[in-house]
Amino acid sequence: MKVYFLGTGTSQGIPVIGSSHPVCHSKDPKDKRLRVSVWIAWENASVMIDCGPDFRQQMLTCGCERIDAFFFTHEHSDHTAGLDDIRPFNFRQGPIPLYAHSRVIKNLEQRYDYIFETENKYPGAPSVEVHEVRNEPFIFAGKEIIPINAFHGTLQVFGYRIDDFAYLTDVKTIAVDEIEKLKGVKVLVINALRIEPHDTHFNLQEALDFAALIHPERTYLTHISHMFGFHEAVQETLPDDVFLAYDNLEIHI
Ligand SMILES: [Zn+2]
């Protein structure tokens, strides 16, 4: 299985528009972070977790030619605002399966009414085939996909486990039963916004504590704010098995 980090930044991305913060002016490509998303591919499948506002740019960079499904974590714009740009895939492939919590589906139906239109739909509009995700495993392209229920402040979010890989973002709290589902994971991706605490996101310490409960071989941190610091400097402070993810990083599991 291949996991490609399409974006590793928090909601504004890095650089932040108009910011004078030194990280926003860094020349290190690892300090440029688009909005958070991953591309996961295995023998017969190519899946995106989330579809943020940088989706078009991410697709042009990563060279993805086919998308078999989108799995959504939650409805916030930094995870969904690229939906209009799936059209080139639709024109080649037809409607694309979209997996999400029923609340997220409802939200997308309101915000992107033209995508979900059933009468007189504009022929060039994006098209999706909706699948509701409940907090129970489902099979996709021969693999068991295990949703992991967590909370982003008071908002429910889903992470996803596929084999020995798990991806969770925008997590602040997670129940013990859900952590159980992550046991045995070899590669964990988890959000870590910055050093300072935040109301709705894990900070670094919370992410490290969470990783310690799961004991993966490797942990990658994502959904990173410019306030976390320079990539290189932060990486030096991390334990040997914990890595700051960066845009266009590709790992194999
Ligand atoms: Zn987010």
Strand content: 25-35%
Examine the secondary-structure arrangement and name the CATH architecture. Answer: 4-Layer Sandwich
Bound molecules: zinc ion
* Rg calculated over all Cα atoms: 17 Å
CATH class term: Alpha Beta
**Termini distance?**
5 Å
CATH topology: Metallo-beta-lactamase, Chain A
Number of helices: 8
Keywords: Hydrolase
Domain Metallo-beta-lactamase: 35-223
InterPro entries: Metallo-B-lactamas (IPR001279), RibonucZ/Hydroxyglut_hydro (IPR036866)
Pfam families: Lactamase_B_2
Structural write-up:
Keywords: Hydrolase. It holds the Pfam family Lactamase_B_2. This protein is of the alpha/beta class and 253 residues long. The chain has a single domain (2-252), classed as Metallo-beta-lactamase, Chain A (4-Layer Sandwich). Helices cover 22% and strands 28% of the residues. The chain contains 8 helices and 14 strands. The protein has a 7-stranded mixed beta sheet. Strands 7-8-9-10-11-12-13 form a 7-stranded mixed beta sheet. A hairpin with a 2-residue loop joins strand 7 (138-140) and strand 8. It starts with a strand and ends with a strand. 42% of the residues are buried. The mean pLDDT is 98. Bound molecules: zinc ion. Residues 11, 36, 76, 78-79, 170, 223 line the site of zinc ion.
